[in-house]
Amino acid sequence: MNTKHVKTRLLLLFMIPLTGALSSSIAYLFIKGILELSARIQLLGPYYLLLPLAFLASQHIVSRCQEKDSLNNEKIMDMLHQSRGNVTLQTLPYRLGAFVVTALLGGSVGKAGPSAQIGAGISNGLLRIKPGLFTPFQQEVLILCGISGGFTAVFGTPFFGAVFANKILWTHGDTYKRLLPSLLASFSGILAMRTLGFEPMSVFQVGSLEIDLHLIFLLVLFGIFLAAQAFIFIGIVKTVDRTVLKLFPTKQKKAIAGGVVLILLVLFTGKNDMLGLSQPLLYRSLSGEAQFAPMPYLKMLATSITFASGGKGGILAPIFIIGSTAGSLYAQMIQGVVGLFAELGMVGFFAAATNAPLSALALCLELFGFQMLVPGLIVIAVSHILVRRSSVFTTQIRKVYSRVERN
């Protein structure tokens, strides 16, 4: 190995934690700012009445971007697979701008997607300081480190950030070669976040669990229940998207109609918890507070309508909220412990809806502790096995199984 290769690898070893730290820190500050601003806006009154304008504004921001297709959630997945992570920096302000408008005015979106895009943008920016310095594979590793750092910023969970980025965004082979650098980047990111004042999310403390046949039966039944909810959610997303496209062929009509429908949904139910980032709703569920029984289905509808109407943002946070509120619903049905099933519902529904069981298990252990290993494993395994070939990330499923069929 010559001196040039040694220097390049040493520089890569320096760049991996730097990328993770910058990605997590900037994504964390961005998320924190959005959440604080969102809370202030909600105090001003019925902010959701501006939803049609929010979707119109999001459409306008997208129309100003020369690479409009790259702002579509599925196109972003395609880009990360086909171009091996080479995210176009010019589109990043448009993505984040459309997300901010959508989230602040009530669109049901999540923050994980924008956080991952921030990480990808930062890593690309660092690579462009001196183009050609790293090999294509090393560039992929650094980009994935940035994405892992972005995912880590969502909950402060480095294992989840690294595993999920590798599983969802990189479905081709040799994942293990990227996983260790991703973990190093994610742990560098959480250390950087702590210096900025990050505090772990407060959750329901389960304590010691006695795993008996009765509990196992309830957990298996819960996994089946979550799989059914995942099928319902995936079906709603596809049905709403097709229906809106058929009834409202122009983007402007989609935006106005979607906003009006969400306003009517709030007025009819008297609930607006399903709108926006819904962070308080997630915190209440995970703290053990019973939620409005139809809330998971309201969140499914709000999320589906938001994306069909032109809203931009991530879908992971809505998935987590649907899962936790579904757990609350199940606990009320069987008169069980709401906090326990809300936590298991969050990770079990996530595993089923995204086809990412290992990421779900990592999230379960990091957020809720190792006492949740066996219950989490049962619920995640059952829900994932039953759903298996379905996912809200259709690009992921299409690529994974087309490769399997070829082999």
Automatic annotation (TrEMBL):
CC terms in the record's Gene Ontology section: membrane
Superkingdom assignment: Bacteria
GO MF terms held by the record: chloride transmembrane transporter activity
Chain ranges passing through the membrane: 12-31, 43-62, 141-164, 176-193, 213-234, 255-277, 297-322, 334-354, 360-387
Entry membrane topology: Multi-pass membrane protein
Keyword Ribonucleoprotein among UniProt keywords: no
Subcellular location: Membrane
Main location: membrane
SUPFAM superfamilies (UniProt xref): Clc chloride channel
This protein's UniProt keywords: Membrane, Transmembrane, Transmembrane helix
The keyword Acyltransferase is annotated on this UniProt entry: no
PANTHER family linked to this entry: CHLORIDE CHANNEL PROTEIN CLC-E (PTHR43427)
Protein name in UniProt: Chloride channel protein
Organism: Alkalibacter rhizosphaerae
Source organism phylogeny: Bacteria, Bacillati, Bacillota, Clostridia, Eubacteriales
